[in-house]
Amino acid sequence: MYRKAFALMALVVVAGLVLTACAPQTVTVTVPVEKKVEVTVERTVEVPRERVTVRLSGWAANPQETALLESLLYRFSVENPDIIVKYEPITGDYWQAIKTLVGAGEEPDIYYMDIFQFPFFAKEGVLLPLDDLMAATGTSRDVFIPDLINAFTYEGKTYGIPKDFNTLALFYNKDLFDQAGLAYPTDNWTWDDLKAAAQKLSQPDKNIYGLGVPADPGRFPIFVFQNGGRIMTEDFSDTLLDSPEVVEAARFYTGFYFDKSGALPSDVGEGWQGTAFGKGNFAMVYEGGWLIPYLNQQFPDLKYSAVLPPKGPKGYGNLIFTVAYVISKNSKNPEAAWKVIEFITNEASQTTVLESGFALPSRAALINHPYFQSHPESATIFRGATGATPFMWGLYGSDVNEKMGQALERIYLKGQDPEASFRQAAQELREILGK
Amino acid sequence: MFSPAMRRKLSEWLTAYIFLAPWFFILFVFIIFSIGWAFYLSFTDYNLFSPPKWVGLTQYIRVLRDRDFLQYALPNTLKYVAVVVPTQTVISLIIAFALDQNIRFRRFFRTAFYVPSVTSSVVISLIFIWLFSKVGIINQIFGLKIDWLNSPTYALPTIMMVNIWSTIGTMMLIFLAALQDIPVALYEAAQIDGANRLQILRYVTIPALRPAIFFVVTMGVIGCFQVFDQIYVMTAGGPLGATTTIAYLIYKWAFGSTNIQMGRASAVAFILSLMILVVVLIQRRIIEREE
Predict the structure, then answer these.
(1) Given B152, B238, B258, which is nearest A398 (Cβ)?
(2) What residues have CB less than 8 Å from A176, skipping those under 6 apart?
(3) Most CB contacts within 10 A, which of A130, A273, A371, B235?
(4) Residue A287 forms beta bridges with which residues?
(5) Closest CA to A348 of A82, A43, A207, A143
(6) So what's the ipTM on this one?
(7) Which CATH architecture has domain A169-317+396-433?
């Protein structure tokens, strides 16, 4: 206060001097001024990046498979601390759950998509096309087995990255072959070899049958393909169930049942032919890779192996069952979701999947992996994909399956002629397809 | 403003509604709203993914012309109700009479007959799949070679048996309670009047049981029209549609299909409830006339 008054007085004195002198005079006054200085200093600072959460759902087939996925996701989280993956497995009816979630717009960012269900989801436009995301990270379609990635392509866009797949193989019981004094099947077998062996292996009085021939739309079509036929037209708008190729295949397939060289699982008191095979009731069954861990667990003493499905009059034919990871169109973090998919389908992860023995990887390059040398059955199923057809009959897939199964049942249970039975199936299906 | 009496009444109302609020919430959201929404959906074409499209009565017409509905679901459901409801009512009534007598191990039998009712229907279904398999115990005991669940002839009767076996426990319990409610004085009066046992049964017991019978039959009719879980587990509607019932058809169209048909499934659901309503009303008319 005192100092301020003094300064004011000084100012008045100076001003007085200036005024009295009436002439410009230079006075030097030092005034303290605070000045802002910006200095660039190099220093590393931990800036917390925004963490995003990505939800992932699938069915929980078995605890081992869940553990496998969790371990892959853990590895991902170590490399990508900014992305939190919330794994939300769905137990029970997966399709009911996921369809309701999609309907409510509450679906997870990433979920499992079976090829059989894919057409509906693709047509409804609830999935995100992945091509741009793939281009951004330089992931090529070519690294995946072509039939698998093509199966998840709709109108030229990629909608799913195949996570694993299965085909059918002819599993055979070595002991039963030895007892019958027969040579084991080979990859070069034909329908005739199959029929001859089945007839020799069958001992209906002992409840042993050569081949399992269930009324199963997930098994029978391979005989159609091997006979040069198709289940549906290429655009899935019409069915070919009444074509001569299908009828002939049905005659051959159901023939095993009628001459007792084959049987239905229920004939030996089982719901699934895999169990009948494990118990030694069926000497041969067409099943996929899922049979291997089941047999190893339930029937560890069973001696078995597997070969490619025998060729029919028109050569090789097989079914591909495959599941992909898809991204929801509603996903708020598609880039992060893609990073997750990219990681869990990359070569290292797919190798882990293969070595776990639960599923076959979708990457073509892995065919040379040493695992296949020590696991010939898995190798058979992996090789089976070449020249196989995806298990998918278009939008009305479940109706096609139902009618095909019923056509076989009519032959088995009512003794109807294959031609009449499949004609009826095709007719009923055309009503549904609006033909 | 309000008189003390009115104020008390108001506060009573308020208290009541506060206590009822959670149940009202459930009632309106999960029952009344859901039914209303399903009713709306039955007039639309809806596949869960795209918004519902109004199509008027098309879905109802489609259902009434549908092969699965006309050829399998409708006749199978009617057959099922016609066999299961009377059978389970009569059997449970007989068991209730027996266990109402002073027999030995009465408590044990009561428990034993009731156990199926508290067991999960899925577990029961799995057990019966084994019992009725082609190499199962039933075939071995009777020396048969029938593939019960894979035969279009026997599959539905097998499921009927399962359901009868698993529901008689509950119905027996209701009948037992009703039997024990009949005043002893009525029996004594009848005896004094010289009625024999059969007459007592016909003119005292059965009339006294009428409300219980009405209840049991009504619940039976509703349950049988809606039979689903045993079929879902045991046969999935097969073989050749032999066990496809209306409730199973609803599931198939709503969820079991690659191409979802919510609208059509809702239409069948309303046709089914209409059928149940009609049957129950007829049944009530009959019971009333007897009185």
Answers:
(1) B258
(2) A201, A208, A280, A283
(3) A273
(4) A169
(5) A143
(6) 0.79
(7) 3-Layer(aba) Sandwich (3.40)
